[in-house]
Amino acid sequence: MASGWRGILGFDYGIVQAPLGPDISGPELAAAVANAGAIGLIRLPDFPAPDYVREMIRKTRSLTSKPFGAAIVLPFPYGENLRVVLEEKLAVLQVYWGEFPRERVEEAHRAGVKVLHQVGSLEEAAKAKEAGVDGIIIQGREAGGHVIGQEGLFPLLPRVVDLVSDSGIPVIAAGGIVDGRGYVAALALGAQGVCLGTRFLATEESFAHPIYKEKLTEMSCTDYTNLFGRARWSYAPHRILETPFYTGWKNLPDQETEESQPIIGQSIIHGVHNDIHRFAGAAPNATATGDVSRMVMYAGQGVGLITEIIPAGEVVQRMVAEAKAIIRERLSDFHLDQSRLPSHTRIPLELLARSCRGGEQGKNTKGTSTVLFPGPPL
Ligand SMILES: Cc1cc2nc3c(=O)[nH]c(=O)nc-3n(C[C@H](O)[C@H](O)[C@H](O)COP(=O)(O)O)c2cc1C
Predict the structure, then answer these.
(1) Same domain, 348 and 291
(2) In 191, 205, 309, 338, which residue has its Cα 20 to 30 A from 371's Cα atom?
(3) Which residues lie within the region annotated Disordered (predicted)?
(4) pTM of the model
């Protein structure tokens, strides 16, 4: 359990802010997450825009001195944008929806960039392991946004953990996790980190449209569909809020796509003006105008637990504090709060560390009066 608190990939915590398209996880969100000690990711454009990408990185660096990363979606042209990530030597590159072979991973490593691959199945995880990635994000079907896998996170996660156990590659759980309870559950299943999309979407720094954020705090039902963006990203399934608009149209015949539909609004995505057609895959970012309530609103199954828009740094702080409290107060029979003991009965921390099976947990809690350890009660 202690490994969850050591952080991963050199970061303070194993909490990853999922990349959020279109243009929703920009410099402000990634920097706020980085400043809180977690892994912030700017979502790069789906078209070649190297100068724009360099500008995004520059802006993020002006908001944080901490390391952060960038993310690409593999079915779209990414070569030129990737080159900038490597030139700028970002801490992390996150990739999704496709293969990222060993040569690519080695190229990133030569630039000092660590690779996180988000996958949705055991087979894909095996390929990522083979390619030598630095972390595998395993996405369950509960996840918001486009969903590559078919399986629930809980049955899938421990299988991936077992698969990579001989490699030391950290496994990061994604899908439906929004608080410390989800964090602890993932750690218990063998993950070393968690990746949250919907929770970070509903933060002050996310670039989602205010109406979209409001719906995230009000609604709790989601559905898994292929209704939106069929022409642009061929029938890629996604999880969305069950808005009244979606409910009215969810049985649209398969051959219908957004291409022949009326325009319902506009938005600027990575500096480019776009008309938003009905059933388009572009969720409303803060620049969206028109009939925002009829635009797609991606969300994971954990959305029912989200009731307020808070700063992204607070999401990280709350997750860690909640998870620690759960482990301390509910999951450990061997909890010992020395501050409550008379001073002559307190046990030196060095002795406790030695009495722990494995000793690791004792070391981690040095300097605090509360000690968690898996050994027999003293
Ligand atoms: C609005 C939104 C946009 C997303 N965009 C991306 C993306 O561009 N790239 C990516 O790898 N994942 C994307 N995802 C999926 C996340 O990486 C992650 O798997 C998911 O958010 C985890 O589930 P959760 O939303 O329940 O936390 C997106 C998710 C949401 C909600």
Answers:
(1) no
(2) 191
(3) 358-378
(4) 0.89
